[in-house]
Design goal:
Distance between the termini: 14 Å
CATH topology: Rossmann fold
Order of helices and strands: EHEHHEHHEHHEH
CATH superfamily: P-loop containing nucleotide triphosphate hydrolases
CATH architecture: 3-Layer(aba) Sandwich
Oligomer: single chain
Helix content: 55-70%
Largest sheet: 5 strands, parallel
Structural class: alpha/beta
Number of domains: 1
Length: about 210
């Protein structure tokens, strides 16, 4: 049941790496599902519209966090668990580590509360491999702004918020070295993909 999650701050290139990994796996004959959080289901897409709307600057941090957990619960129940158990390669753009980095550390939502509710949302489903793409926040934000003409809710946050997120991802990688790989992502996509593919190939003996 190969379940791989792709994590990182704004502009880290994680979505590009996921797409490249999906293409390589399909070239090798594997059945692959590409999905994301928030927005991996029809209900999740409606939740995503609320979370990504730049007009919602007044969204309370706990309300924001609970919307992400609602999206995750629906994603796990409706799609992720079934697809992982079917034996497909499931590649997911963001999962629970995002919640720890963004809502718990970045927004300051109480940690024990986040862990309990997120465990309920996941229902025991954890990735076999998590790849975190690491880039200096100012570099990532510059990339994100070049990619998108509008500034999103997270891209518009103060730089200290993004520094806290990066530190949180580093802490996750230190805490769970068997599951999590931290990948330097300042280089171009093809160069970064060399390391992405090495991690996937070694983890799943491809």
């Amino acid at each position: 049941m190969p379940f791989v999650t792709f994590e990182g701050g704004e502009g880290s290139g994680k979505s590009t790496q996921l797409a490249m990994a999906a293409r390589r796996l399909r070239d090798l004959g594997h059945d692959v599902l590409e999905t994301k959080e928030p927005g991996g289901t029809a209900i999740g897409q409606k939740i995503r519209a609320i979370l990504m709307d730049v007009a919602h600057t007044h969204l309370d941090p706990i309300s924001e966090w609970l919307l992400y957990e609602a999206d995750r619960r629906q994603h796990v129940q409706e799609q992720l668990r079934r697809e992982v158990e079917s034996g497909r390669f499931v590649l997911c753009d963001r999962y629970s580590d995002t919640t720890e980095a963004y809502q718990q550390v970045g927004r300051g939502v109480e940690g024990d509360l986040v862990r309990r509710v997120d465990a309920l949302a996941r229902g025991g489903l954890m990735p076999d491999l998590t790849l975190i793409y690491d880039v200096e926040p100012d570099v990532g934000l510059a990339r994100a702004k070049r990619r998108d003409r509008h500034v999103g809710r997270f891209e518009g946050a103060e730089i200290d918020f993004h520094r806290r997120i990066r530190e949180a991802y580093h802490a996750i990688a230190r805490r769970e070295p068997l599951r999590v790989g931290l990948i330097a992502a300042a280089a171009g996509p093809e160069e970064v993909f060399v390391e992405t593919w090495r991690r996937i190939r070694e983890r799943f003996e491809l």
